[in-house]
Design brief:
By secondary structure, the protein is an all-alpha fold. It has 11 helices and no strands. Helix 1 packs antiparallel against helix 7, helix 1 packs across helix 8 and helix 7 packs across helix 11. The longest helix has 27 residues. The protein binds protoporphyrin IX containing FE.
């Protein structure tokens, strides 16, 4: 799973499966647990795919961008670990009969870490925008685009991100991200697709924030899209320039 295609497919699958598993009241418990388990396995594969990043942690230069990316990845790793551990402990399929003590609190931690996973994954996607672009270019999926079209795409993304602010409210994600309860419950009997569109807009909002944060923290002498940890720069197949 080393080529750009499988890498991107794996990351996309991790995101889609996590979002899918989040729709508990649509899926029911068994499908939720199966989807969540597959999501965790896919995430683990993604982490292993990027093993070189972990091995390089002790090496190279540290600029603002690298500090930000490292803090975010460690938060994501911590969240994924919490999600993974609580998934096993609160599993109804595995342990319902045991009536474990403190299960209510553990369920809350499980839910809150799942909501945070969507926000952190969005930030992580935005901050890795340069890698996604390079992978897509290597696959031949990106063509040189006129500047006005590129701006139009960014404006569209910005509009979706603004919708993401409202969508976070519709889905009750803002209080839940601050570890508070929300009365917002999506009625899956009424509709399903709009739920996922709202969730997508919410992730797009955080992806835009991650992308902007990446642009704002360009290290000294670094291009905004260059790796900050001393790795050999990749060459961008579109322009031939180094990224
Ligand atoms: C749904 C969740 C996630 C999504 C959608 C996602 C997406 C991505 C994408 C698109 C990339 C760039 C493509 C690549 O080179 O593979 C990437 C890189 C990376 N991801 Fe994730 N990821 C997720 C979760 C995680 C988690 C939980 C961790 C850590 C435990 C993690 C660690 C990394 C690392 C270390 C890199 C390499 C960054 C670099 O080289 O600068 N990711 N991720």
């Amino acid at each position: 799973m080393k080529g750009p295609g499988p890498r991107l497919m794996l990351a996309l699958a991790a995101l889609v499966l996590t979002g899918f598993a989040l729709s508990y009241w649509w899926l029911g418990n068994v499908v939720h647990e199966v989807a969540g388990t597959v999501a965790i396995i896919v995430l683990l594969r993604h982490v292993l795919n990027n093993g070189a990043w972990w091995r390089r942690l002790g090496r190279g230069r540290w600029d603002k961008r690298r500090v930000l990316s490292t803090v975010l990845t460690l938060l994501l790793a911590l969240d994924a670990l919490v999600l993974c551990i609580t998934s096993v402990v609160v599993s109804e399929t595995l342990f319902a009969a045991l009536n474990l003590p403190g299960i209510f609190v553990l369920r809350e931690i499980h839910w809150f870490s799942a909501y945070w996973m969507m926000a952190l994954a969005g930030l992580h996607l935005g901050l890795n925008g340069h890698r996604i672009k390079t992978h897509l270019a290597r696959l031949g999926a990106l063509r040189p685009t006129p500047r006005p079209l590129r701006w139009a795409a960014i404006l569209l993304w910005f509009a979706v991100a603004l919708q993401g602010v409202a969508s976070g409210g519709v889905l009750g994600l803002w209080p839940r991200l601050s570890f508070r309860y929300s009365l917002a419950m999506w009625d899956f009997n009424a509709s399903v697709l709009p739920y996922f569109l709202h969730l997508g807009a919410f992730v797009a909002l955080f992806a835009m924030l991650g992308w902007l944060a990446g642009k704002a923290t360009v290290g000294d002498g670094h291009r905004s899209d260059a790796p900050a940890d001393g790795r050999a720069p990749l060459s961008d197949p579109l322009t031939g320039s180094k990224t």
